[in-house]
């Protein structure tokens, strides 16, 4: 089946710093989503982005489907950004998740 | 409703007992998915439904796990004779029409099962 690899596996930022999270996938996909799982376990939809670029406040994402990767940009990070960021792709008819990037933002 | 609603939020069961989790998908969504997350990593796909029909059950440990989506009722995931390794958060998700292809998949808040 499709492989989804996320990097880095974990990241510590000082509040206010910017970061880029990466998601590589091994096959063509027809759906890609980024999620934030907060420290309380809630899984929050960030972006549905099978291709192109989207922005939502301090977050933006770019997917280059032909090269099989997606990037999530976090600018001016805040402590509330802490948690785990998951990339997930649909190959066939179900979402396949990467292992996540654990982000900790220090004040 | 406008969100995927899962109940209960927390469930504690003794080893060998039965556990049953419920999920109400977003109104109008035809596809429902169940995922298991152990230790806040690794989402494991269990099963998906298209309306009340099983769409993909390749992830289900069939000997103890079962799931249903009946008309006019919440979907359910049942674990017979729970084991310690079943302790996890069980997420339900739904999407309109095409099983995730070309559509956002929305997740509920999860049901935390602890087997003691």
Structural class of chain A: mainly beta
Order of helices and strands of chain A: EEEEEEEEEEE
Q: Could you state the order of secondary-structure elements of chain B as H and E? A: EEEEEEEEEEE
Overall pLDDT confidence of chain B: 92
Helix content of chain B: under 10%
CATH superfamily annotation of chain B? Immunoglobulins
Q: Concise description?
A:
The complex is a heterodimer of chains A (107) and B (116). With 107 residues, chain A is mainly beta. Chain A is 0% helix and 58% strand.
Q: Would you give an account of this structure?
A:
The complex is a heterodimer of chains A (107) and B (116). Chain A has strands spanning 4-7, 10-14, 19-25, 32-37, 43-48, 52-56, 59-64, 69-74, 83-90, 95-97, 101-106. With 107 residues, chain A is mostly beta strands. Chain A has one domain: Immunoglobulin-like, CATH 2.60.40.10. In chain A, strands 2, 4, 5, 9, 10 and 11 form a six-stranded mixed beta sheet that branches. In chain A, strands 1-3-8-7-6 form a five-stranded antiparallel beta sheet, with no helix packed on it. The radius of gyration of chain A is 13 Å and the shape is globular. The mean pLDDT of chain A is 94. The model of chain B has no long low-confidence stretch (mean pLDDT 92). In chain B, 0% of the residues lie in helices and 48% in strands. Chain B has one domain (5-115): Immunoglobulin-like, CATH 2.60.40.10. Chain B is mostly beta strands and 116 residues long. Classes of the chains: A mainly beta (107), B mainly beta (116). The interface between A and B is medium-sized, with 23 and 25 residues.
């Amino acid at each position: 089946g499709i492989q989804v690899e996320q990097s880095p596996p974990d990241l510590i930022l000082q509040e206010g710093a910017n970061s880029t999270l990466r998601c590589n996938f091994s096959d063509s996909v027809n759906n890609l989503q980024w999620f934030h799982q907060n420290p309380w376990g809630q899984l929050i939809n960030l972006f549905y982005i099978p291709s192109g670029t989207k922005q939502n406040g301090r977050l933006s994402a770019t997917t280059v489907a032909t090269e099989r990767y997606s990037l999530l940009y976090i600018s001016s990070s805040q402590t509330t950004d802490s948690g785990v960021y998951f990339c997930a792709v649909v190959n066939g008819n179900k979402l396949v998740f990467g292992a996540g990037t654990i982000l900790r933002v220090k004040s | 409703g406008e969100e995927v609603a899962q109940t209960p939020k927390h469930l504690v069961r003794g080893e060998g007992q039965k556990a049953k989790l419920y999920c109400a998908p977003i109104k109008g969504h035809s596809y429902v998915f169940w995922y298991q997350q152990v230790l806040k990593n690794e989402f494991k796909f269990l099963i998906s439904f298209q309306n009340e029909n099983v769409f993909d059950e390749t992830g289900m440990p069939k000997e103890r796990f079962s799931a249903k989506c009946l008309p006019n009722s919440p979907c359910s995931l049942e674990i017979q004779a729970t084991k310690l390794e079943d302790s996890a958060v069980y997420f339900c998700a739904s999407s309109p029409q095409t099983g995730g292809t070309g559509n956002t998949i929305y997740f509920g808040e999860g049901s935390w099962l602890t087997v003691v």
